Amino acid sequence: MTSSRTRATGASVAAIAVALVAAVLVAVPASAAATGSIVFTRDHDVWIMAADDPSTARPVTTDGTAAAPYLFPSQDDQGRIVAVTGGEGGQVVRMDQEGTVLDGPFSVPGGNFQDLDVRAEGEVFTYTTYQSYQTPEGFVVAPTVDFAYADGRDPAPVANPAFDSADATYSTDRAFLIDYDDDSTPWVATYGPSGAALQNWFQPCTAPTQAGDDNLGCFPSMADVTTAQDRVVVALPGIAWVPVGSRLYVFEMTGPPPAAPTFSCEIVGPEPSFSDTRSFRNPEWSPDGSSLVWELVREGEEGTGSGELFMATGLDTDCEGGFAAAVSLGVGGSPDWSAAPLGAAPGEPTDPPTEPTDPPTEPLPPGAVPEPSPVDPTEPRGAFDGNPATTERVNVSDPIAMGLAISRARFADGAAGRVVLSRDDEFPDSLAGATLTADGPLLFTPTGQLHAGTRMEIQRVLPPGGTVHVLGGVNAVSEEVEAELTALGYVVDRLAGPSRVQTAIAVADRVRQVAPGTTAVALARAGGPADNPTAGWADSVTGGAWGAATGVPTLVTDTAALHPDVAAWLSANGIDRTVLFGGTAALSDAVAGAVPNPVRIAASERTGTAAAIAASLWQAADSGPRRFTIIDGFDPDGWAYGLAAAGMASDAGAPLLMVNGDVVPDPTAAMVTGCTEVDLALIGAGSVISHPAAVQLDELDTC
Asked: Is residue 202 part of a domain?
């Protein structure tokens, strides 16, 4: 990544911009990794194009007019487009890529729309309107950022208006906006729905590498952060009275906010005049963070779709060079770049739905350890796109959102065979549940009530009459949740016992009913020491994906001695092979000596054990890339991310490996290093699996 402070002159970039206006549209080079699709406005309607081929541009809507245009389209990663219809004072509508209305039109609180951006998973959008307020200084009208549900539900649970702030964009689970509380030095700030506090982050106008006269007219209009939280772009309009051309500033991030970013490079637009001022607006990063699309529009024509769209690629390796080689995408405005491909259907995952690996149906020879069935590593599965040149990321950072995102990536409408439901705040009852996720998602909910997003996802993937396996007793998932599921028409199968040991036994009983044929079992520790609680789930999580792929249930026991109930279950069920996850600090030699035909899969610490499970229990790909699913094995919520990803890992033949914060441990590095292609899926946003760790992983996958 270049960190040059040399910037292009206004005159040179003006010449580039003028030349680009007349450029012949060409496909973006493959090296740009311009995946997904871009929605934008043109001729008062919503349009869409494949990000790597502007010639595919076509209208999504055809009924927009000058008096009632479509504005600010934004597309989630499933291919659902949220837009304003009827002009700035209009309503919100959600549609598919063919223009078929899915929800709305509906109204949200506020005045005239100025911007809108939907979260990647599609449940919530943020928007800016101008609203009037009575203040001690009098009656004022100011931009206000707020949040609403994309399906038109009552927005009260997520509403969180931020007065005197503008133009929020969703790049992660939080929004990034411009905060004008201090007009002399506006901030880029982070914000969220449901009562989250606005946090000022950095002041783009004080970057020390810019010429002093630039900042006489420094009024940022919007900012966007890459999915991996490694780069941020800030747009500033042209100011005729300085004069100074519009600018796009790119900053490199050393980590998620509040870590301050450092200035990298800029592009400066044509020098403005009082009769002709053109500004860069709506910069949007590509899903992989290497490319940028933006609009160049004349003052007074914002939102009309009559500007010019540009794309710069390779900004992750040569910021200045990427801007210098920018190409025109044609006439348009308000671009929004999504991971959804052109042609994505509503309600379907971005990648083609996959069939789960069938568990063994015939008894295996005594003492055999089951192996997952081989999977074609070039076939898209879940978050894996089948291309080892790209590293995919499930870009969320809380358990509930993770369960939803992975479920949407795996299952088309009505395609799940079951749903597994667990509490979202503690891991014990979830430890054994991953084995049931070969043909259904693991979703999470608060104990007291069924989370609205989880309810909607259950209704989407599971036909009425289907089974929801609830993990744990009523103190884990309440009777109220069970009653709501029953009222929705589902069969509730509560798998519970007086402790996590007996809950795992209840899950194992159900596994043997739905996936008969194996006489093996996995065994993991039931908990970790008080000063290292994440050790209590680490081995169960990395082993859980193997369980999902093979139908082998997982039991848990105390470290020092085999629990009597586990011993009784092993005897009663004719188990003839026991796979122990972890070393003697996790499961003692006494435990190993009390189980049938023990096979210990272990290393000196958890990341090594994860690598040993991958190397010893999973079949290596015969051809094409090897696949791995990456979690942070030390994050407090890592248990939820790993268990939710177990079914996807099973689908893709991609065992779980671990990072530790910014560090890629040696055992993980050894698995992904080499000349054989490696395809990786990172489970978590940049605040979970950091940019430094992601960069290290990509660098290791080289000869």
From this structure: yes
